Amino acid sequence: RFAHEVQKFQKVTIAYLVLRDSERQRVLDEGGYKALAKSESHLENDVFDCDPWDVYERFFKGEDEEDRQYLLLHGGGEDSDEEGTDDEDDDDNDDDDDDDAFV
Fold first, then answer.
1. Are the beta carbons of 52 and 68 closer than 8 angstroms?
2. Structure pTM?
3. Cβ-contact 60, 30 below 8 angstroms
4. What angle do CA 33, 42, 25 make, to 5 degrees?
5. Which of 17, 25, 29, 96 could form a disulfide with 47 if both were Cys (CB 3.0 to 4.6 A apart)?
6. Distance (Å, rounded) from C-alpha 6 to C-alpha 11?
7. Parts of the chain with a pLDDT under 70
8. Are 16 and 55 in contact (CB under 8 A)?
9. Contacts of residue 12, Cβ cutoff 8 Å, sequence gap at least 6
10. pLDDT at 99
11. What's the CA angle centered on 8, arms 7 and 11, to 5 degrees?
12. Residue 51 and residue 57: Cα distance in Å, rounded?
């Protein structure tokens, strides 16, 4: 089961790396998966051999400018259950529909 989940994580990482690189995305769009694999086999930084945990860590550290901008706009993936933030919302018991617009 764990190996299957790791394989899925690797696929998501490959998709992320391909979609953020316009040249890789062009190769995939024009020639499909086989063309991408062939193209990547000639590169030093092959997306198929990358460490998905390293990519994940670099993303959330914001080492790349685009990643940093994304994190600034959309948050850093913090858990919403930290330090009682849930408790404050539950105590209000408001039935305002306006609150749902920002969730």
1. no
2. 0.65
3. no
4. 40
5. 17
6. 9
7. 76-103
8. yes
9. 52
10. 44
11. 90
12. 10
With tokens 């490959």, the residue in question is: 14
Token pair, residue 37, equals 């694999």
Residue listed under structure tokens 């600034």: 72
Calpha distance 68→58 (Å, rounded): 10
Q: What does the block give as tokens for 43?
A: 């590169």
| pLDDT score at 52 | 93
* DSSP per-residue string spanning 29-84: HHHHHHHHHHHHTT-SS-GGGS-HHHHHHHHHHT-SHHHHHHHHHH-----TTGGG
User: Angle at Cα 93 formed by Cα 87 and Cα 94, nearest 5°?
Assistant: 125
pLDDT for 76 equals 65
Which two structure tokens, joined as six digits, stand for 92? Answer: 């209000």
CA dihedral sign of residues 48, 52, 56, 57: negative
pLDDT at 68: 85
pLDDT value for 98: 45
